[in-house]
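Progress narrative, Year 2. Work on GDP-mannose pyrophosphatase from Flaviramulus multivorans advanced from sequence curation to structure prediction during this period.
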Amino acid sequence: MSSNRLKNIQSTLLSDNHYILKKYNFQYLMDNGTWVNQMREVYDRGDGAGILLYNKEKQTIILIKQFRMPTYLNDNKDGFIIEICAGLLDKDNPEACIIREVEEEVGYRIKTVKKVYEAYSSPGVMTEKMHFFVGEYTDTMKVNDGGGLDSEHEDIEVLEIPFTEAIDMLNSGKIEDTRTIVLLQYAQINRLLD
Ligand SMILES: Nc1nc2c(ncn2[C@@H]2O[C@H](COP(=O)(O)OP(=O)(O)O[C@H]3O[C@H](CO)[C@@H](O)[C@H](O)[C@@H]3O)[C@@H](O)[C@H]2O)c(=O)[nH]1
Ligand SMILES: [Mg+2]
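Result:
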């Protein structure tokens, strides 16, 4: 991490209540050669991982539905949103994280996953980099009902749906989570279920 277009970076902690929100004051060298003062608030929750689980034989995928307060505060009527299974890395490596999340959130014990993308979630605001995976599941891999951790009051509904139905939902605007859109489009482009 170094740049000759930045100097005098100073940070002030605004909140470490759960994750970390800091204010950064710094000088930035514009393309026209002038130094300007800038201030940015940056939210640090670490990195994340998400996965599209698919079953070629059944032509199905697994998504989840859960309450997300930030969407409720915007325009999502009841605050429930359909997403891929995903979680924060919590110091795990991305593969280990996503394998753990799959078992906790949707109840399948999978062994192999394929990394397809690595991308910043919201580069103007968060430090978070997201690791995107796809992985095959079968009925025999099911070990529990999923639903998330009771200790964290996770309340996750598991949706096993035909891939074609998911694509219809994508095209009709019912999928409103960017990470989910990315992986459904990946599956379409790469004919993942063929
Ligand atoms: N007490 C408290 N708990 C929190 C707070 N924010 C999150 N949590 C809890 O922290 C846990 C995080 O669960 P994970 O499954 O590890 O993370 P995630 O929220 O699903 O994260 C995924 O989606 C995010 C997008 O909304 C991604 O940003 C992230 O990378 C990952 O893909 C959940 O139990 C959630 O309730 C908070 O401010 N306070
Ligand atoms: Mg999660």
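The mean pLDDT is 97. The two ends are 42 Å apart (CA to CA).
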